[in-house]
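Continuing the batch. This is chain 6 of the set; chains 1 through 5 are on the previous pages. Same settings as before, nothing changed between runs. Recording input and output for traceability.
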Amino acid sequence: MKRSNSLRKSRNGGIYFYFGDHAIVIALVVFWVALFFTNSAFSSFSNYSAIIKEASIFAVAGIGMTFAVISGVFDLSIASQIALSSVVFTAILPRITPEIPGLGIVLSCVVIIIMGVAMGLINGLLVANLRIPAFITTLAMQMVYRGLAQFVNNSPVPISSLGNEYRSFTATAMEDVVRWQVGGVELFFGRGFGGTRLFGFPLFFYIMIALALIGTVILRKTGIGRNILAIGNSREAAHIAGINVPRTQIITFVMVGLFTAFAGIMMTSHHGSSNYGVPSGTEFTVISAVVLGGTALAGGKGSILNTVIAALFIATISTALTGFGIDNNIHGIFNGAILVFAFSINTIRSYADDAFVKFLANRDIKAIANKTAATK
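Output for chain 6:
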């Protein structure tokens, strides 16, 4: 009987709902409902839309990190990768086809994605070929990428300072907004890449969902994904089964770099500027989302869609703290508590699973005993 099943059947025929891997989904729904009734700010859909937009950046980075954690490793360099992607983007944007700004934006995004893959490849080669532990490798590369970002530009560069023709990458001026409504219901709100909404949801939401689905297909339906899962379960067994472990490790870090590059592009658009000072704690926020989403720290098990839900949950907590007037200096305490909880969630879940199974077993035994006594 698998513990991941949502429904369980007891010996006496009763059906019991078991949360299993869906716990984070239920937690998010309950949290949103509670906020709706306890804080007037959360009675507006726009607040939830803002949470989704903020969370989508961390969720996209979390897609790549999910591959890493499933394989049994972390990548602590993703915050610095985002920082380097951001400053390089603003550095090359006005230099690529300046006569066709739209094409320049697209080509700049392509360059950043290629650069993200390259950073992941470097990390993977160091871990797989030089056999440096991933923790040490990515911690060292975190400093390297951060230093490179500061070397490229040690001050924020607003997109608007590059010229009005590039403002479509962030949020255009309100007078340039394109809006379609039917019966008072907003169908489309066009305000540049960073400010567009479709059916009330930010464009980032659809990008996040699309990338999450792509990541899920790669993880569940391809040989690469199955190899990553196998390595996470047992590296030795994967090697015996004929899996090229070093190559799979490299591909794993390439996946991290790829999705982190998308997150870097989205963050630059969201903030409307580059910034080499992306908070170093970003990687722990992303890891927290991955683990809260049910990905096992030991590897071999995980869900990308649950990572996305967990990112929404963490972003909701941050917004709720602000909404209830909690001092920003105290936010770090909650973030630390979330991190501790995330790293202990598998142990807590194991205890809860055992307690639940024991409860059902005792209940079934009593039911059978009562039925036996009644027939005598």
